[in-house]
Amino acid sequence: MTNRVFSGAQPSGNMHLGNYLGAFRNWVRLQDSYECIYCVVDMHAITVWQDPAALKDQVREAAAAYLASGVDPKKSILFNQSRVPGHAELAWIFNCVARIGWLNRMTQFKDKAGKNRENASTGLFVYPNLMAADILLYKATHVPVGEDQKQHLELTRDIAQKFNNDYGIELFPLTEPIIQAEGARIMSLRDGTKKMSKSDPSEFSRINLNDDADTLAQKIRKAKTDAELLPPKADMLEGRPEAQNLVGIYAALTDMSRDAVCAQYEGKGFGDFKKALTEVVVTNLAPITEEMARLQKDPAYIDSLLKEGGEKAQALSAPILADVKKAVGF
Ligand code: ADP
Ligand code: NA
């Protein structure tokens, strides 16, 4: 079987450093060893309200972030989900395969729906079935994911297995996660126990990929920390989640180990460390920010790339969806 990767991010605005370190940067590295499909998942985005007048631009912003991070449309398929109707068709079939009990166990739904569960969209509840459809519509064998998506990928395997069993056909692979060591979980700058997220209402919680150098410096200066010094080893940061997070971001961006970062700044306070971190963040993000801005000035170009990618995705998925429909009896 071809080693094929599928991954995506939601076009809900505010593409951030967690998306870059937990996803995009990793995607770029996979392009030479896998057949890669990178999707802007606009159908996932509308599980919570999106302003229709803004959504197309948010799709372009996400595509620009992929491209600026190094996703190469000559090597990988890049498109937005709603162009390929097979995602919705397969998701419906999976709605009929997955069990309510399985979805009830998904922690992300509990987090996102919050206390007002009765008022969450049914789409938000069955979101993991659509994610399984995204992956299995192409028989993807591998999915690079941040820690936050591990549980959803396990559900994808459960759905593949149950479909194969119920219909007596070895149609879907059991997709494997690819989780890289550094950057798998970047936390909020305001609260080291919450992940950095597009949907966090606090602008200072998040490093956006389109922040300029001054904004980056200000956000890092204001990031929550403690008054203690940097220890010689990373395991001595236990119980200091904000400090751990900043050291982790430095390590991820420089490809150093957390231990090496601690060793370099041992005995320094966070005033000094934040200055060094700002330099590392600005140096790494500036070319991405610039390239995103350049691309976003030409929406017609981005749209043409997405259209081309959508046609490739359609062609790749059509025979797989035909086999699924045949197995189901359609
Ligand atoms: P968000 O949670 O910000 O809405 P998405 O759900 O669109 O982001 O996720 C897109 C990709 O970015 C996924 O692979 C996800 O695992 C990764 N990701 C999102 N937030 C983080 C984070 N804080 N740290 C590491 N990876 C992240
Ligand atoms: Na997410």
Automatic annotation (TrEMBL):
Q: How does it assemble?
A: Homodimer.
Which catalysed reactions does the entry list for this protein? tRNA(Trp) + L-tryptophan + ATP = L-tryptophyl-tRNA(Trp) + AMP + diphosphate + H(+)
Record flagged with keyword Phosphoprotein: no
| Record family assignment | Belongs to the class-I aminoacyl-tRNA synthetase family.
Protein name per the record: Tryptophan--tRNA ligase
Name of the gene this protein is made from: trpS
Q: Where does L-tryptophan bind?
A: D134
Q: What does this protein do?
A: Catalyzes the attachment of tryptophan to tRNA(Trp).
> Gene3D superfamilies recorded for this chain?
HUPs, Tyrosyl-Transfer RNA Synthetase
Q: Which GO terms label this protein's molecular function in UniProt?
A: tryptophan-tRNA ligase activity
Q: Which UniProt keywords apply?
A: Aminoacyl-tRNA synthetase, ATP-binding, Cytoplasm, Ligase, Nucleotide-binding, Protein biosynthesis
First-level EC class: ligase
| EC number assigned by the record | 6.1.1.2
Give the location in the cell. Cytoplasm
Q: Which InterPro entries match?
A: aa-tRNA-synth_I_CS (IPR001412), aa-tRNA-synth_Ic (IPR002305), Rossmann-like_a/b/a_fold (IPR014729), Trp-tRNA-ligase (IPR002306), Trp-tRNA-ligase_bac-type (IPR024109), Trp-tRNA_synthetase (IPR050203)
> What residues bind ATP, as annotated?
Q10, P11, S12, G18, N19, G146, E147, D148, I186, K195, M196, S197, K198, S199
